[in-house]
Write the structure tokens for this entry.
Amino acid sequence: MTSTQPHWRFFRAGGFDQVRLDTAAELLNIGQLDQKLWVALSCPVKGIEFDARTLAFVDSDADGQVRAPELIAAVAWAGARLKDSEVLAQKLPGVPFSAIRDDDAEGAAIAAAARELLADIGSGDGLVTVEAANAAQARHAQRAQAAWEAAGAAARPLGDATAAAHEALAAVAEKVEDWFVRCRLAAYDGRAGAALNAADATLAALGGATLKTDAESIAALPLAHVQAGAALPLGTGLNPAWAARLATLHQAAIQPLLGERALLTEADWKALKDKLAPYAAWLAAKPDAAAEVDGVRQLEKLAHYVRDLLALANNFVAFRDFYTRQGKATFQVGTLYLDGRSAELCVAVNDAGRHATLATLSRMCLVYCDCVRGAEKLSVAAAFTAGDSDQLMVGRNGVFYDRQGRDWDATIAKIVDHPISLRQAFWSPYKRLARFVGEQLQKIAASKAKASDEKLTTAVVDGSKKVAAAPAAPATPPPPFDVGKFAGIFAAIGLAVGAIGTALASVLVGLLALKWWQVPIALAGLMLAISGPAVILAWFKLRSRNLGPILDANGWAINARAKINIPFGTSLTQVAHLPPNAERALTDPYAEKKKPWALYFGIVAVALLAAFAWVLRDQWR
């Protein structure tokens, strides 16, 4: 007999099919869904925005990773503990008491804990919320502590002084027991008395050293002289290393419990221990506030599962929240505001260098920021998927808002550069050319300024030397200018200028030979020839952007090619726009005054080139 396969529904996003998990039945059947269709097979419990207690429950082996079998087991356990499994898909803040199954031992313990909790908090709706379940353990610990403290009244024979008496007894108990055992051995065999006392050699060794009362060599000696049937002296005759502690015992425990005495017999010692035994047992029974009661813990676990399992599955089996933009995904830890943009795809990272090694395969422009908020520190990687990267540079500052709305000071520490948009790719050749020309002009200007400064300095120094020195022989005049020597240089310069002029003339002649409507097409073709390769390369990279390497570098096991295409990527980074119906004054009182000289030079240059082209055209005819 074959089992009935569930009717699965899929939606397509990110270039691949993802399962829809909307109902409790679909959630309960994820164990039957082929794991090759899961988006993720493992995720870390840290560095993601999800309830840490829920993840700790699901992570059954406590290794810091939630894997597919653990999620399947958690869903199966929750389904087995519920009478009505539909509550798993109702987005409730906890588990209703009426939905708890109580027909077995585990269910009965959970139901009893829920009943007691609801009675304590006076809840009339019968809903055990996650917050109430979290506090149930604390309430149980408080009740256990109160019961333990109440029982302690009968276990204190000396009232508040019992603690001091017990501490004094515990401090010497092992040593006193040792001494009485030695005395019993001496009674058993008279030869043992001498052997169980300090040997002559041991005492002789002490005689040659500088001694202190608390020396370990003295403390290791017997408490007092060992002999059959002896009683422990409480004054003279005690080992000096133990005298102070026995005096404390005498004052804190022996006198108030047994009465004044100079010797402590073995029977007295046993009686003293018996009087303080209830207090010792009471201390040993102190409840552990961190200990979890099975019924209370399972109730808390069930409340978390009812609230969170469907949401966890939709950020694990599928990435519904991320691709439908109906909410934030678990791996989105906040939003970075920087360079007039807000980047919503931000993930937490521990080591930017190691993360970038794998994350660069995502083909996304990643900006790694060190975030600081008071004494707290955080590192994030933000994906910039709209705008350009012209003003993104290490050291720039921004503000990072985490999912709790807290603001952090963010500073760029590392950038993994990839194309951000087709617009950026189109203009990149011209920007590179302009940047190159600007850099070369700056270098030339700097070298000229340096040469001028050096020449001026040399002239001043040489002048001062000439004034101070005696008249010297007339300097040898420089050789006359040799035209033939520089003829080759002048010829080369002329050829270069001629070649450039001929090339410009050819272009201009070609444009003038075209009809007026063909000129824009030719110019567009020229721009396409320049920008086309960059745009095509950027298009391929933008189409191949992949979320997987970014998450894999954080410890996820991404099982699908989670693509981020151009439209979806654009939605992940918002560019600054003026609000609707905003007024904008275009008059800038501080705008730079435009000079017409550039226009004049441009007109003259075009006129000269046109005349030059016209002359060449007549000659070619």
The chain is about 50% helix and 10% strand. The longest helix spans residues 422-468. The chain has a mean pLDDT of 84.
